[in-house]
Design goal:
InterPro entries: A_deaminase_dom (IPR001365), ADE (IPR028892), Ado/ade_deaminase (IPR006330), Metal_Hydrolase (IPR032466). Its cofactor is Zn(2+). By secondary structure, the chain is of the alpha/beta class. It has one domain: TIM Barrel (Alpha-Beta Barrel). It has 20 helices and ten strands. The structure holds zinc ion.
Length: 385
Amino acid sequence: MIMGHFDALHFVLSTRRCPVRRQGVCFWSPPVTTTDLPALFARIAPARLPELLAAMPKAELHIHIEGSLEPELIFALAQRNGVALPYASVAQLRSAYAFSNLQSFLDIYYAGASVLLHEQDFYDMARAYLARAASENVVHAEIFFDPQTHTARGVPIEVVIQGLHRACVDARAELGISAALILCFLRHLSEEDAFATLQQALPLRDKFIGVGLDSSELGHPPEKFARVFARCRELGLHLVAHAGEEGPPAYIWSALDVLHAERIDHGVQAQHDAALLERLARERTPLTVCPLSNLKLCVFASLAQHNLPQLLAAGLCVTVNSDDPAYFGGYINDNFTQLFAATGLGVPHAYMLARNSFEASFVDAGTKRAWQERLDAVFARFAQE
Ligand SMILES: [Zn+2]
């Protein structure tokens, strides 16, 4: 055992404030040590970064399960359910994935979801994602789902949640990956519709851990959903919200102050507001950043121009995620490797981002510590090889 090195890896943690607070209680209290962490990182050759990024355990906190639906599965489900698609082949569907902004993506995304009708369909979709995630060393996933996309087509919410939940249970047993569900409200619909969705979901309250806010951001600020988020807060649900993907920093402020979001999904536009950056760093509010999504939806002109390195350097609890991997050209490890190749991030950043993903997750402190030890073990192994 090389415990000295393991302890070293905990050093960074000791300097940070707890980001995961529920009713004033800190659930994340890392051990305090003082060993030389940079020395350990220096022993890992930069050339091994792709291998390290793939091997390191990580949590994925920003994945829309409907966005993991691969064209092959869309066609298989369409055939199984007798649904006609406006595309002749898998190749033709894939070729339609040239997006100019968020809305152009959402139009195809909702068309793809139309093949999901039965509990088994939702199960198969989630199971396929979890198998892929486990193969990329994701040890935990907090999965978004959009019930309104399905209930609007006449699919009962029970069908959606039961299918997804069963996939999470089976994946844990068979693949060793843990997973939890976060119900997202579609922000282009009304708050009244969100309230109705919450009401429908409450009999299945034990099968999801929180609520989020997604879909078309511009013109639909967080405060539109103030009352339904207040109700979810009373119910003890975790709260997250997309903000500052295409929308202004003001949307991030209101996600924090009006919705009381514990995590900000995307949040990259925070770079335009120094006071906001300072607050996010001070409070360690996690940002779930999705580099390939930002590239595909033209939030940044190139990955080399992505601001994740600056956000990390500013002390924010940044994480890397895949968003809608079937549509944006890559799962979580593709996001890591392509971002690192384009921006020059190195071994210490890989460690920080994996560690942040555990810090930002909604699990208990003991579980976080166990994952942290697995992360430390992988870095220690790479440093020795
Ligand atoms: Zn998203």
